[in-house]
Structures are given as structure tokens and as C-alpha cells.
């Protein structure tokens, strides 16, 4: 039970409640919420971020799956509650209703953080920025550069669409109950003019490329490109982790139509 709240953290929801007030202040300053902005918080929990953000912006929309926590938040007049699994929420429709672009924040459930990031990807053009608390390992992967062991599918997919910056490292003792991993806060700002491509094809291509990380790309991506009827040139005598994001994007642009 989180101290003084009467609410038990629910393992199936991946709940770890942020309790370090100094750290919360640092996060809110990094977000810099302002009145009138369409702010959306994913997984507000017991309100550790919600309340100090509300003190600055006066109104907030939250997405909360836990019905007990959602009921608590509904009692406030300054919070709109979307009681739903975040993976089912249409953020494009939400941005239109709130007069976007959205500013999205949250301490994301660590057990589904990557699916949430991929779920938000198609609506990046309806988002101003995103600030998330995540497992530090995930943030390291998001921000990794070519040649780094953390560089992978998540790095390529997200860096195509966002400028990614790791802001703060967060120790386990900042939470109740403490997670078994270190955490970090990341800022994601969509590129204003991203390279246009078929997102589904791009995702498939990147997944194939990193499916055999230790082998040269000719064993994985090369075979896939042959199957697609690709007649261009691409250096396949490299491992997937050696290829910059821009080269993956350029390749995706010239793929034959499916």
C-alpha cells in the first residue's frame, strides 16, 4: 500500500508511484506546463506529477486504466479522465478535441512502455512534445547512436520521428514500491518536417534488419530486400547496429511498393 493513500500498487498494471518530491519538482520544471496547453498524462497513478502540473496549467486530461484511481481523479473539477487502456486511445482524435498539438507526459508502466511508444508514433504530427519516465535501459536504447550496443530497432524507429534527449536519471528509491531497475526521464520532440515513408514497411524492414544482430545484414535484410524485388544498392556487409538512422530511412523511401 502506498503510504497514506489507501491504494495498493497493482502488479498487473506495472504500478510504481513516484514519491521523491525534489525529483518531482525537477521533472515538472523540465516539462514546463503552461495554462491553456492541451496536456495529457498517461498513467497519473496517485497524482505525483498530476498535482504539481495542475498547479501550473489549471487543467489536465489523464488516461488511467485503474478504475479506483480513475474514480479518485474524477472527483476533481480540473481533471478530465479517459478511463481506458492507453493502447486503445486515439491520440489523433484527442488532439482534435483538445485543440492540439498535445503535450504528453507520464510515468509509463514499464511492462508495456515500448508498445506505448510505438502506439504514439503514428500521431507524432499531432504532438508538440512528450516527457516520460521510463526504465533507464529503455531510454538508453531510444537515444543510442550507431555502433553502441544499445542501438537497435527502438533507436531507429523513434529517432526517425523524434529528437530524443535523456534528461534525468532516477534511482529505485524514488518510488513506492521501488522497482528493481533504474529509471530515467526522456524528452521526445517530433521533427517538424520528417521524411515521409510507409510506416508499416519501415517498421517491418527495421525489424528484419535487427533480427540477427550478430550477423552481417546480407543474412537478414539482404534476403528480405531480394524478396521485395529491390534492385538498388545498399551496403549489406555491415551489421544492423552499424547503419545510421538516415540510411535506414533512405532505404525505406526507395523500396518497391508492397
Plain-language structure description:
Residues 23-192 form the Ribosomal RNA adenine methylase transferase N-terminal domain. With 258 residues, the protein is of the alpha/beta class. It folds into 2 domains: 11-190, Rossmann fold (3-Layer(aba) Sandwich); 199-253, Orthogonal Bundle (Helicase, Ruva Protein, domain 3), CATH 1.10.8. The protein has helices at residues 21-31, 50-57, 67-74, 91-98, 113-120, 136-143, 153-161, 199-209, 221-228, 245-253; strands at 17-18, 39-42, 60-63, 79-82, 102-107, 127-135, 162-170, 175-176, 183-190. The strands form 2 sheets. It has a 7-stranded mixed sheet with strand order 4-3-2-5-6-9-7. It has a two-stranded antiparallel ribbon with strand order 1-8. Strand 3, helix 3 and strand 4 (79-82) form a beta-alpha-beta unit. Helix 7 (153-161) packs across helix 10. The N and C termini lie far apart (52 Å). Mean pLDDT is 92; it is low at 1-14.
Tell me the layout of helices and strands.
Layout: E1 17-18, H1 21-31, E2 39-42, H2 50-57, E3 60-63, H3 67-74, E4 79-82, H4 91-98, E5 102-107, H5 113-120, E6 127-135, H6 136-143, H7 153-161, E7 162-170, E8 175-176, E9 183-190, H8 199-209, H9 221-228, H10 245-253
Parallel strand pairs: 2-3, 2-5, 3-4, 5-6
Antiparallel strand pairs: 1-8, 6-9, 7-9
Catalytic activity: adenosine(1518)/adenosine(1519) in 16S rRNA + 4 S-adenosyl-L-methionine = N(6)-dimethyladenosine(1518)/N(6)-dimethyladenosine(1519) in 16S rRNA + 4 S-adenosyl-L-homocysteine + 4 H(+)
Domain Ribosomal RNA adenine methylase transferase N-terminal: 23-192
GO cellular component, one term: cytosol
Amino acid at each position: 500500500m502506498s503510504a497514506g493513500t489507501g491504494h495498493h500498487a497493482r502488479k498487473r498494471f506495472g504500478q510504481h508511484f513516484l514519491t521523491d518530491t525534489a525529483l518531482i519538482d525537477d521533472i515538472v520544471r523540465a516539462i514546463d506546463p503552461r495554462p491553456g496547453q492541451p496536456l495529457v498524462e498517461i498513467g497519473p497513478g496517485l497524482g505525483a506529477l498530476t498535482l504539481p502540473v495542475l498547479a501550473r496549467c489549471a487543467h489536465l486530461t489523464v488516461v488511467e486504466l485503474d478504475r479506483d484511481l480513475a474514480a479518485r481523479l474524477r472527483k476533481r473539477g480540473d481533471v478530465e479522465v479517459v478511463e481506458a487502456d492507453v493502447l486503445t486511445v486515439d491520440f489523433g482524435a484527442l488532439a482534435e478535441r483538445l485543440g492540439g498539438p498535445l503535450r504528453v507526459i507520464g510515468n509509463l508502466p514499464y511492462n508495456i512502455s515500448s508498445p506505448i511508444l510505438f502506439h504514439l508514433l503514428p500521431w507524432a504530427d499531432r504532438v508538440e512534445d512528450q516527457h516520460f519516465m521510463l526504465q533507464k535501459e529503455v531510454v538508453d536504447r531510444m537515444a543510442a547512436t550507431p555502433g553502441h550496443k544499445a542501438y537497435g530497432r527502438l533507436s531507429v524507429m523513434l529517432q526517425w520521428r523524434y529528437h530524443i534527449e535523456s534528461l534525468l536519471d532516477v534511482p529505485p528509491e524514488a518510488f513506492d514500491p521501488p522497482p528493481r531497475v533504474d529509471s530515467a526521464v526522456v524528452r521526445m520532440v517530433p521533427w517538424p518536417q520528417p521524411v515521409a515513408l510507409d510506416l508499416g514497411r519501415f517498421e517491418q524492414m527495421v525489424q528484419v534488419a535487427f533480427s540477427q544482430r550478430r550477423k552481417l545484414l546480407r543474412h537478414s535484410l539482404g534476403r528480405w530486400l531480394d524478396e521485395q524485388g529491390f534492385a538498388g544498392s545498399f551496403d549489406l556487409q555491415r551489421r544492423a547496429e552499424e547503419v545510421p538512422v538516415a540510411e535506414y530511412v533512405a532505404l525505406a523511401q526507395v523500396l518497391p511498393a508492397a
